[in-house]
Amino acid sequence: MDMKPLILIAEDEDLMRAIISRLLEESGYRVAAAASAEEALEIFAAEDVAVTLTDIRMAGMDGLALLDRVKDVDSEALVVVMTAYSSVDSAVAALRKGAYDYVTKPFVNEDLLQSVKNAIRQRELFRENRHLRRELDRRYSFSEIIGTSEALQQVFRLVEKVAATNTNILIQGESGTGKELIARAIHHNSARSDRPFVAINCGALPETLLESELFGHTKGAFTGAVSTRAGLFRSAEGGTVFLDEIGEITPAMQVRILRAVQEHEVTPVGSSAPVAFEARIICATNRNLEREVTEGRFREDLFYRLNVIELHLPPLRERREDVPLLARHFITRTAREQGQVEKPIEPAAMSALINYAWPGNVRELQNAIERAFTLSGDAIDLDSLPPRVRDAASHETVRDPDGLRPTLAEVERRHLLETLASVNQDKARAANILGIDLSTLYRKLKRYDAV
Q1: Other C-beta atoms lying within 10 Å of the C-beta of residue 275
Q2: pLDDT tens-digit profile of 148-158?
Q3: How many alpha carbons fall within 13 Å on the CB side of residue 155?
Q4: Could you name the CATH architecture of 143-314?
Q5: Looking at residue 229, what DSSP letter applies?
Q6: Are 200 and 232 in contact (CB under 8 A)?
Q7: Burial code of 291-311, b = ≥16 C-beta within 10 A, e = fewer?
Q8: Domain made up of 6-135: CATH architecture
Q9: Sorting pLDDT into bands at 50, 70 and 90, what band is 432?
Q10: What's domain 317-447's architecture?
């Protein structure tokens, strides 16, 4: 299949149409030449046209009308118009209607080719942006935050309610629970989604650098300040500022952030004039800020300004039923990144994953699965897991609601049912993931009265 860009030429002068066609073909493009705007429209509707090159003055439908019709079909269509030097006003009118560029006749070959080349690059950018938008939709939709536990579903329900508001939010949870992912999901599902989301880890920077990053600075404010910088609050105009590890900031910085939150204005370093900004503020911490307030390490007024709505992300040990789903999700991701086929998890390894307490939460599970995938053979077994996780296989800490430890058979039963649920009850696919044949799967399901 020929993947060269297709250039559509709409030109009613035979000689000129032939000259342009040859020029473009010799430059490596495919060409579809039309002797009228009407014919060009038919080609545009039937082919994947990269750039439309049209004369403005043509018998019948002219180039401006063609531009309108093409834009009606595809608002991102790239149209370059050609016009006589004495009719530049027509070209300006075309630009106002959405034409990408214009060239004047008689044209220099290099100018025409450069205009077409620039238009094709713009087309690539459009496609990249659409791809990135789809990736954002996929990555930050709630369906990609893996888990079916009631604890996580409660978080989802609250996120859906608060996303539509402009209220400040405080996300609390242990390290590795996905606080930034939830913050991005809130932003992405809000009316601010087309505006910036800017994030900073407040605990990763010294106070002086954090101040400059957040509030900006003027040129010459300090050594190395060679130009004026807006700062994150102002860079997020209309969008969302995410302040991670807010509990790590110093008392002096707490005062400055309190003023920014209250007044929605910041004073850049080196300036005495405050500058207004408009952005939603989402903060996150792995500290117990109420205790920090009680013990005098965090300002009470700032805490209440930030904690208008509180979201608590449960640690992974409190939603162990999500471990099999998360593990398979990370296997799929790792297999894709490494260009390999997915691997099943042996029951003993899955039992260890479920029993382990995961002090590093989802992030630690992801790292463990990547390690196991790399070190294992055809299936992820107990030996491929990190030693600390492997040791959990001999310490059954998972308990049912009545406080009893599940048997190995119950762990296997749960694993079978969860695997089936993850593939919409496709038994053939479930058997492949589990590393057993279909007849074995049916036999096990029958044994557990789960057919």
Answers
A1: 15
A2: 888 888 888 89
A3: 28
A4: 3-Layer(aba) Sandwich (3.40)
A5: B
A6: yes
A7: ebbeeeebbeebbebbbebeb
A8: 3-Layer(aba) Sandwich (3.40)
A9: confident
A10: Orthogonal Bundle (1.10)
